[in-house]
Amino acid sequence: MAEKLVQALFPPDDCSSTPQVSRRASKLLTLHWTPLGLSEEQLGQTVWAQKHTDKVLSPEIQKLEQLFSRTASATEKPAKTEKKPSRSVKKKAKALEMTRAQNMNIGLKSFKGLNPAGIAAGIRDLEVAVFSVEQLSRLEEILPTPQEIQAVQRLIAGPGGKKKTREEETGQGGAPDQELDPAEVFCSNFINVVRPRAKLTVLITMKSFDTQCDDLVRRLQIMSRACSQITSSARLARLLSEVLAVGNVMNEGTQKGGAMGFTVDSLLKLTQTRSVCKSMTVLDYIVDTLLSKEEADVVDFREELQDLESASRLPMTELCSEAQSLCGGVQTAKRELKNIRNDRENKASASEQPATRKYGKLKLTPAADSGANATPGDARANLLSALKSARKDEVASETTTAPADPRAGLMAALRAAHPAQSTDDAKTTTPADPRAGLMAALRSARPPKDVAESSGKSPEQDEGEEHASTSKSEGADGSAGNREAPRASPAGVPTLTKFLKKAERRCDELQRISNETKQTTKDMISFFGETGQDPGHILSCLVKFANLTKESKLKRQRKVEAAARKKRIEEAESRNKKQQQQRGPPSSSSGAPITRPRGKSGP
């Protein structure tokens, strides 16, 4: 026992055991296995005692080190970590709520042929042909609000609040500093779009106006025809008079007797009162009476009311609200067109009007000369020189004790441009107001309204000509080419203009049909003597009454058929009895009647 313990603690030098091999620092990866604790005696009886398994050739070792080296695996790990960000990992929205961002991303999947920049451009330019009705309805749900656009804009600007260019915001130029979610990229494209919600409403109106208007006109006409059919139906009037007569007979001597009329919903109560035998209702009696008088056409009054059932499913209040909403959408489009023109005029005036500089309490703006032969350019140059001289006087006044009047240069320029007026001013004793000459120059620089109106062209016709003339003048003049030209009108403005002309005519027609339908419904309500009643309630009661009348007619027909069948059976039985009586009892061949003994029958 002691010898085994010593050998275990101090193994001999020539013993090549696995612990010594495992102590060396291996350059290869660790192989995960479980070694066997076998003695030499046990090892000799196993497959591991074979010596050829211990030797590995050097080329195989080199290949093993190449494949399973620790250094190679260490260098491969950073490569794997570098590839992970390149995978399509979903980015989380930072400026939007998670639910809102998910809804936007889901909605954007329906725009397969459009990217966010194309969607924003289509809305900005009012390109109605780019979108379908389903896409516009989806855009109405996912269109970013002004607060969401501002939040994305602040996210793009960063902590410093530095504004980025349009290319950086839309992703067309340099990539933004922070990676954005697709919903945030979609919102960033609407940063420079003015009134996106109003423009989307205009697109929806332009896309669906014709279809909605046609459908609404069709339903209004159905309602109008149904009301006219009711008021002009002679069969219905005859049936109502029969019901009134029967009711007054039944209610004679009571508070409800001697009635001049009854409500339409009272027709549905004719089936509630039954006869003594409980087999017939009041409506069954009335139908039976009319059929016995050969007035079956009165019972079939529904044949004259062909549009009754269709009109009963059309609430008049909803039809009127739809008509108002449709015409309101046209008015919204009209206001948006006016806003687009105002935006274009404001941009044009901002680009043409030079910068205003302030000297003291007076703001001096270059204006055109008011001379008869002077051009706006000369007048503008004179006023600019006046500003320069006023500035020189102001600088010179800083060195002198008495400050010079900064308006002297302006007045000198105005007197030079108007020699006759300057002479008259010199004769007067009171000095003229320096702002009067400036206002006169500004008025002369503006073209009078009569000149603009004398062309005889409407603003809609002048949309394209004004833009073309502006581009041509800027291309011909080198100085004007350096100045930034105002942005042209959206591409869909001519289409919107044509649409508004057509839509206004259709709205007038729709309004006329709607008023006619309202009048016919009022006539129908007055026909039944129920002022203030809902026309839909009257129509639904008439539909139910027509169905009850049809059931009563079928019930009477079944009774008549059953009675006829019973009568035929009785007549057949009576004929058979008469025939048997005429033939007499059956007899034998000898002529004597056959008699059978009572009891058991046998041979």
TrEMBL record:
Residues 72-92, 157-178, 339-377, 443-494, 552-603 are annotated as: Disordered. SUPFAM superfamilies: Formin homology 2 domain (FH2 domain) (SSF101447). It comes from the Eukaryota. Signal peptide: none annotated. Residues 552-576 have a biased composition (Basic and acidic residues). SMART domains: FH2. It holds the Pfam family FH2. Residues 18-575 form the FH2 domain. InterPro entries: FH2_Formin, FH2_Formin_sf, Formin_homology_domain. Residues 579-591 have a biased composition (Low complexity). This is FH2 domain-containing protein. It comes from Rhizochromulina marina.
